[in-house]
Specification:
Elements: H1 2-69, E1 83-88, E2 91-99, E3 104-105, E4 110-111, E5 114-115, H2 117-129, H3 135-144, H4 157-161, H5 188-194, E6 198-199, E7 208-209, H6 215-221, H7 227-239, H8 245-250, E8 264-265, E9 270-279, E10 282-293, E11 296-304
Parallel strand pairs: 3-6, 7-8
Antiparallel strand pairs: 1-2, 2-9, 4-5, 9-10, 10-11
Amino acid sequence: MKTRTQRGVALVMVLLIVAMATTIAAFMAQQQGFWQRAVENGRDRAQARRIAEAGIDWARAVLADDRSVNDFDHGKEMWAMQLPAIPVEGGEVQGTIYDQQGLFNLNNLVRNGKVSTVDLARVQRLLTALGLPQEIGGALVDWMDTDSEVSENGAEDEYYLNLAKPYRCANRPLSDIGELAWVKGFDASIIKRLQPFVSVLPESNTAVNVNFAPPEVLMAILPGLTLQDARQQATQIKSNPFKTTAEFLQKLPKSAKQDSTMNISVSSQYFMVTGYATQGDGASAVHALLHRSGMWATQARKSLQ
């Protein structure tokens, strides 16, 4: 009787061991599958990133070729047209070049650490055109200038250090438009409203390319120009872009004031390049700010996704 009981226990133990071994084997196979899939996904993402980054080199070549043809830039040129998705082995790639000087460069607000009163007036006109409070212009100046004097409706360290989560003023040019979230008076809705009309470039004296400027930006940089007149100008520019600033000024209504402080152009040096690529199950996006100087376009800023 005892022998049969021992045999029964032994059989149960054997069955348990077999079941356990089967479970472990299944678990290890599953984990190996997960690991292999992770490796494949990582490989696909890396390949997609390399393909997307190749789009930056494509943009450099396109912009250099464009400069060899003429000295003006407008929306009808080949580089300004979106590159359709191009099939590559195992995926596809597409890219776009966006002009950045048809927008108002926020870093123009402060030059050599001091406020540019002319550009502050332009920003305030732009804010008014967009239905945003002019006061935030002063706060932005204080965020970037190097002194500790508080501008009208502005804020320096004293304000920011008394917040629930204190921090100091940057006291330097903006590095990215997202930085506005730290500035007094700016919130997500204001930044979203402002973003289509402004840029953040690594220089503080860039001209506005009128061939790409939205009506609100044209009105901001040309005192006396109404929004209605600016819209008419922008509509005409789409079909007949200007080759010289003289041509543009001749077409302006008499109400628009023209003086030596105007900082306008029909050419651009800064461009935002967006490249997107897929490879297998991997995808990657690259955003790069290119600076074109003469026949060369160098990278000023890049982000990967």
